[in-house]
């Protein structure tokens, strides 16, 4: 199995790794088959047009190189985006940004996009309960 240079770069030097204290939303997802588990934490703010955006985003991932690389990449793709646009980030966006993934590792990009969607849904659920 061969990883692209970009995957290795994101795995070895991941961006936005860690946890946000008092996050506005948390998305946790796991794959029982491969054992990968991801948490995505988001802080929501507003842009100059008063639209909700992902002001800050961090991740914690226990998993393989591809799981860590896709987690790092989803945070970079989502940071600063409007919530409705961040929800539209697909596994193919992650795949393209990483310059490919071995086919056996494609599920990692699904995990990352699903974890982000869960974090946004968690935020929206909390907001609607207030």
Give a verbal description of the structure:
By secondary structure, this protein is α+β, with helices and mostly antiparallel strands. The chain has one domain: Sufe protein. Chain: A. It is built from 5 helices and 3 strands; from the N terminus they run H-E-E-E-H-H-H-H. The chain has helices spanning 5-12, 65-78, 83-86, 91-97, 106-129, and strands at 25-30, 37-46, 52-62. A hairpin with a 6-residue loop joins strand 1 (25-30) and strand 2 (37-46). Helix 2 (65-78) crosses helix 4 (91-97), helix 2 (65-78) packs across helix 5 (106-129) and helix 4 packs across helix 5 (106-129). The model has no long low-confidence stretch (mean pLDDT 94).
At the first level of CATH, the class is Alpha Beta
Radius of gyration, CA atoms, in whole angstroms: 14 Å
What distance lies between the first and last C-alpha atoms, to the nearest angstrom?
48 Å
Secondary-structure arrangement, i.e. CATH architecture:
Alpha-Beta Complex
Helix count equals 5
Mind describing the biggest β-sheet?
3 strands, antiparallel
Strand content: 15-25%
Would you tell me the overall average pLDDT? 94
């Amino acid at each position: 199995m061969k990883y692209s240079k970009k995957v290795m770069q994101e795995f070895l030097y991941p961006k936005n790794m860690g946890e946000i204290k008092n996050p506005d939303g948390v998305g946790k997802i796991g794959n029982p088959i491969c054992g990968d588990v991801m948490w995505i934490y988001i802080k929501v703010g507003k842009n100059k047009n008063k639209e909700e955006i992902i002001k800050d985003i961090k991740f914690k991932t226990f998993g393989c190189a591809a799981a860590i690389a896709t987690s790092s990449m989803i945070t970079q793709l989502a940071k600063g985006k409007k919530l409705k646009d961040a929800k539209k980030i697909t596994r193919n966006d992650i795949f393209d940004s990483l310059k490919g993934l071995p086919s056996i590792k494609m599920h990692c990009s699904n995990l990352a996009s699903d974890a982000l969607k869960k974090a946004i849904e968690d935020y929206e659920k909390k907001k609607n309960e207030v």
